[in-house]
Amino acid sequence: MDTWLLSRMQELKDLQGLIGLATWDQETYLPAKAGPARAHQLSTLQGIHHERLVDPRLGDALARAATEAGLSDDERAMVTVLQREREREVRVPAALVRALAEAQSHGLHAWREARKERRFARFQPALQRLLELRREQADAYGHDGERYDGLLEGYEPGMRVSRLTPVLTTLREQLIPMVGKLTGAKRQVPALFDGRRYDKDAQWRFTLRLLGDLGFDLEAGRQDLSIHPFTGGTHALDVRLTTHVDESNPLSAIFSTIHEAGHGLFEQGFSPEHYRTPLAASPSMGLHESQSRLWENLVGRGRPFWEHYFPLLRESFPDALAQVDLEAFHTVVNDVRPSLIRTESDEVTYNLHIAVRYELELLLIRDELPLEELPAAWNARMERYLGVTPPDDTQGVLQDIHWAWGELGYFPTYSLGNLYSASLYRAAGRELPDLEGQLRRGQMLPLRDWLRERIHRQGFRLPAEERVREVTGQGLTDADFLGYLRAKYGALYGISL
Amino acid sequence: MDTWLLSRMQELKDLQGLIGLATWDQETYLPAKAGPARAHQLSTLQGIHHERLVDPRLGDALARAATEAGLSDDERAMVTVLQREREREVRVPAALVRALAEAQSHGLHAWREARKERRFARFQPALQRLLELRREQADAYGHDGERYDGLLEGYEPGMRVSRLTPVLTTLREQLIPMVGKLTGAKRQVPALFDGRRYDKDAQWRFTLRLLGDLGFDLEAGRQDLSIHPFTGGTHALDVRLTTHVDESNPLSAIFSTIHEAGHGLFEQGFSPEHYRTPLAASPSMGLHESQSRLWENLVGRGRPFWEHYFPLLRESFPDALAQVDLEAFHTVVNDVRPSLIRTESDEVTYNLHIAVRYELELLLIRDELPLEELPAAWNARMERYLGVTPPDDTQGVLQDIHWAWGELGYFPTYSLGNLYSASLYRAAGRELPDLEGQLRRGQMLPLRDWLRERIHRQGFRLPAEERVREVTGQGLTDADFLGYLRAKYGALYGISL
After folding, report:
1. Is the predicted pLDDT of residue B35 greater than 90, yes or no?
2. Do A33 and B218 touch (CB under 8 A)?
3. Which residues of B touch A31 (CB under 8 A)?
4. Which domain of life is it from (chains A, B) (predicted)?
5. What per-residue confidence (pLDDT) applies to A1?
6. pLDDT recorded at residue B485
């Protein structure tokens, strides 16, 4: 491949890395008064990234390379990936980019105010504007009559509403009665977070130990604290996780760390040959999320995992956990309970929260739901799917930040991540016959290495679903996920699901 | 002023801020394996900054603005400052920029190897190459027959060898006998760092307290740890200091923090009207250094300062300092002693270290000293000026990193900083009649506010020496500095200097 084209690819990746650094720093170490300055710096950097990406010379070089004989498969994939990204960016007029940036900033502000006032109506005009601009953007991107597809493509390339809706609808219809049965079952859940204190330093040390055991390389990454845990960084050798330590409940830090480590292992696992090219990336948000959820739920809420770690946890918190046994603890980390807040929900009800969001944002983008009816529609679906009703908008339609800056099309990738995670874990179980035994002995590297080889090292060579099909023998399906839930919670609750 | 020109100024400043962030992060939190990735990211960012700066459209806009009627004084200064920076950058051909970057990277590597081998010869070819390129660069910048001026202009705009040499030579000739007298004087210096332990957390807390007292705004900046303390950051509201904590000697952290806080106060003190413009900058490295040295030496090694802080220090380290009194402690922080290493030297001998470097690098740039003779020339001057002889090159010519990446012309700004600091402090004393009393009571804000008004808020409005003349009534002089040393050390040592 043309050295000019390669150097442009590298430059774009460097700029993305720097955006990653400035964003990570904003959430971790940025001084309180520096917010507006950082916003300017990020906007300048994003502007330059945009300018370099839409540069016509890059378009020409990509077009030439696309027809060039003698490219390797990887080089061909680099060209395809960057060409697709570039074409999307080119299609959005500069005026719309600016208008969106303004509407996002305004949306965030209005959303924060609305949360303070506990009143959706305060946010409604800003959301209206965001919706109009996102529809315009979807049309600019292009679609086959379903605008939502134009947005979804930015998070989950290749996925379409026509394919997604049936899967998520079936999933929802299977989950509703399952949650009903689990909620109806009589089951004693011990209270472990009833005012006991879990030393913060001991929590921090425990999460670092987990990172080491998971094979997260702390010489090619780090962990810090932030209010909302996330994974960021600048390069496969500079991956930055954050966690959140709550003195009254160590599960927050533990599961945040495991979740983010799942993302982080993906990033650290990119192939060195792909560094500074478009292939050092996940092919979709859903596949990225499959890695975090696989470790957090399939591994981290599993019995084998805690057979190894519970004794160590009790050593870390000898006072708080003195009277608690593995059985009780495992019950607590697998408590299914319909609730109002998505980010605090268990792995069974989680996808019902996503269903509410996906269905509503699809209606919004299609302009089939008047915005003033959104809170009522939200509450009605929460009641229908989960049997709970938000007491106010803060615990309802205003709870997530996504819509506040116009991020519509993202939510379904969480469910895709859950579905993929179960399929991948099932495939891992077939190919690593002693997987449970390994986890029971605290040996997580065999699973990490399997994922590294099958998923991480592959980067963006194939679209997400094709990659999953390569590994599991089938594409997107809810069968593995539902099978996993039925087997696990049926046994835990002693009922048939 | 043209909004396009203003937005370009802001963009350049944002890029500088981001370079600051990536550099700060490199020295504080970057994972061990991420060095090469960060080098690429920084090089991309610097390349883009260069490209935007030399953009002919910027040149045209500046030229138009320079002749525009109706600009405010500040706008005019912005245009002048950026025009000068741009013209320097334009004059250096891209091939030379690349060759220099390569030679710098190679130079750093060779210097590190040479230090390991304790052998200048290992570094010599790399330095030879750097010298050739820097001479070429000086010619590209342009000068009136004195190449060194072309380089000096990059650190100390407006300063010339013809003006600098007489000042530094007189200074040297005054200091040599002064050091001789002080060294000859019999004076008992208590041993405080003889294996005593100074708790690291207590040191850290003490430095944070100092920062607060100095008026360094920890909501518009932060302090972290690094091996070599420095001041960086991204904006006047995001100023980042580092310090270094040595468990056996708290003076390292204390004086590092005070020194860097001096730099940091300058950065935090820029006028909000100048944010994101070329005026939010020091007019020279020497003036920047005057702020760090003023706080570190004129204030921080003074008797009034320790009358307030010594009791607090003793509270922080009750065991180590139990038997120590203010007298003894003040003697230790003002111990004059010829030594081999610049960064560890006291305020009297410090400028003799600079004299050695300045004189030698002037000869090197003029091509009047064969490189193989450099170590011997170094040692001879150390012997002549300070009476000490390096046992090997590591403690001699290889001790500083500056030449390792071709930084020639920088060293004299340290001495300029010392000279300016004494003149400014003397002026402050005239205008703040109770200055000593305030320091004795731990009140540092009146001095900070005076500096903020006279120096910090002014930013790059005037060249350094003009700014100093505005404040003190005179330009560069060694009289105030020598007067300060004579008065202080004459009294401390009980001799006439």
Report:
1. yes
2. no
3. 218-222, 237-239
4. Bacteria
5. 87
6. 98
